Amino acid sequence: MQLEKLLTKVPQDHRIVLVGDYVDRGEHSAEVLRLISARPDLTCLKGNHEEMMLWFLSDPTGQGRRWLRYGGLQTLASFDLHGVQAEMSNDELIECRDRLQKAMGNTLFQWVAELRTWEMSGNVLTVHAGADPKVPPSEQSEKTLIWGHPSFQSKARRDGVWVVHGHTIVNEASAQQGRISIDTGAFVTGVLSAVCLDGTEPRFLTSRD
């Protein structure tokens, strides 16, 4: 699994922050959730795909079909829940939700539900999707941090804060104009990326090296 490979390459004295989308991205969602939830040394943030899964669990008839179309089917399969289709009746969606809750168990469900949306260390803000370049880190909305902001990719921050993020796939991890982009589309490319920040120039790691 790409995540396991990458974790072994992070220097032992570094704190590890993961930026979300642990589900819906490939065939190992359940395995990934169980791995990282059992690692108290990891700081795990919520991505929009965890958000959609939680919406499905709380409101299967209102939110379920959307989640199933955007990767939920693969996540369900990883929990050994098969025979599910994107278009189902309300009763079938509720039954599917109940089966997923049982497969996850209360401990894992609570872990996902309590994921944070940001982490700040010095002048580095780590989030899933991005941040409003005109708003201080402490005043960002959860929606923006999880789903992104229309100005994030086009306007540089002016407050000296660097934003580490995933969500938007790039060919190669990079740092520019206050943004450190590390999502190299592992579910498609097979390459998972990370950045090491220790006060010097950013150093990038990949599961491919």
Per CATH, the architecture of the largest domain is 4-Layer Sandwich
User: Any idea how many domains?
Assistant: 2
Largest sheet: 5 strands, mixed
Percent helix: 25-40%
EC number: 3.1.3.16
InterPro entries: Ap4A_hydrolase, Calcineurin-like_PHP, Metallo-depent_PP-like, Ser/Thr-sp_prot-phosphatase
Protein name: Serine/threonine-protein phosphatase 2
GO cellular component, one term: cytoplasm
Q: What do you see in this structure?
A:
The protein has 209 residues and is α/β, with parallel strands linked by helices. It folds into two domains: 2-45 and 115-206, Metallo-dependent phosphatases (Purple Acid Phosphatase, chain A, domain 2, 4-Layer Sandwich), CATH 3.60.21; 48-113, no CATH class. It is built from seven helices and nine strands; from the N terminus they run αβαβαααββαβββαββ. The strands form three sheets. The protein has a five-stranded mixed beta sheet, with no helix packed on it. It has a two-stranded parallel ribbon with strand order 1-2. Strand 8 (193-196) and strand 9 form a beta hairpin. Helix 4 packs across helix 5 (90-113). The longest helix is centred in the middle third of the chain and has 24 residues, at 90-113. It is globular, with a radius of gyration of 17 Å. 34% of the residues are buried.
